[in-house]
Amino acid sequence: MGMPMASNLIAAGYQLTVYNRTASKAEPLLSLGAHRADRAGDVAQPGGIVVSMLADDSSLEALVAGPDALAEHLAPDGIHISMTTVSPAITRKLARVHADHGSVMVSAPVFGRPNAAAAKMLWICTSGPNDAKAKVRPVLDAMGQGIFDFGDDPGAANVVKLCGNFMIAASFEAMSEALTMVQKSGVDPVATIEMLSSTLFASPVYQGYGAAIAHRKFTPAGFRLPLGLKDIDLVLKTATEANVPMPTASLLRDRFISAIAKGRAAMDWSAIALGAADDAGLKDTQGTH
Amino acid sequence: MGMPMASNLIAAGYQLTVYNRTASKAEPLLSLGAHRADRAGDVAQPGGIVVSMLADDSSLEALVAGPDALAEHLAPDGIHISMTTVSPAITRKLARVHADHGSVMVSAPVFGRPNAAAAKMLWICTSGPNDAKAKVRPVLDAMGQGIFDFGDDPGAANVVKLCGNFMIAASFEAMSEALTMVQKSGVDPVATIEMLSSTLFASPVYQGYGAAIAHRKFTPAGFRLPLGLKDIDLVLKTATEANVPMPTASLLRDRFISAIAKGRAAMDWSAIALGAADDAGLKDTQGTH
Fold it and tell me: For the domain A159-279, what is the CATH code?
């Protein structure tokens, strides 16, 4: 995800210093004019703007508060735009670390796969201090097609991002159960989802994933299945902290775990849809065709 | 539902003979030029076309195969367009009854509330014999904005209709769990669903019901909650016959039963969304404001 997003920043005229744990991955950006930093903290300078797109809570915490702390390198008054899908809790904690060092964190997780990032079609949710959000707005505009703000609680945008990813995965389960029932009742699941996703459910999620589920086509992966499990675990963790039972999220967690157990970790996260088909005794469900 | 659909048929120039169990309900149609039948079977004549919109499987069976059998009144070669949301099983059974009498059944369940019916905005699914479907096509066109055919198995259209209603109800549960998590995490559920339903989930179901769920506004009912339970029971019955476990449908059934137990039977079926909020200890969830 970082690659197309950074490319769009360069295309918009920004001078970038880039860092990736795997140095070779940054090379295409160097050929576009970016500079390479040897350590993550070196991308930052006092008062600058840093965009991070990482793996998870712990890699974000290592970046912001680890031995080569970004929070310190950005001070005074630099801004860290945190775009990884992480927990609201870690975002709130690291926003305080930034504040303690005199820098600022803006949370800005995104909806969209790498191809959407390349096409500048990301939807971006933001939260954090208003003045910092106003200052980084042109940077976000260079990466997305729309920005939605959720106030000054730095964790708010992450709550919305997790809400959205949960709703996407829940649609996989609903489509999967429904289309398995349709198929085993002798009706064409492809025609069925084409009808529903062009009328009542005429939206990107149902159109894009509905076709994949009806055709059982889960490779190549746009978003690998174990990353879906990571996000559902974050949903359940956030729900636990807020005392919210989420029976559908619990079911989805088991679907992800079962899919990994069945050797589907390299597939797209929508391959959890094979679970309902498996349970109904459908044999032709390995999903690789 | 029958009233606006019949009105559109009259507006399209069809001469109607109408029947309703509650005679007074047919009166607005009489003032538009329809004739009234004293018994249901009297709406039919040999070789004619009858449209039925009823309550459930048993009322459809009584109409087609009861003492004053429609299947017999329509013979030879009349066509019964069955538009009620019923089980595929009863449709297949009654299609055979029609065939035995020399008449034909076309299954044509619809998606859309009464206001959509009035605006001729219904989506209609069809299945049954091709020549009969071709003959009644203008009648269906006079009532809907789009017709989707699912082949000659008379039950097929009902399978698709149940599939769609299940997916709608599943979206209520997903939105409900998600927005409860959002609200209890200190984030605005209205802003959240506005964002999601204008981007990833930009479709009639998420936009219409998402706003109702976020605002907890479930009255007046567009489709009363017990009718939703009826449909989920048909989904589960159909799934049982096809040996398809549907854990989400089972959860939804319990949500409907619980909502009725809590006195919400007069609300819209989307009021099952109060279940997740109740479970999370939210007090302000009676849904009448």
Answer: 1.10.1040.10
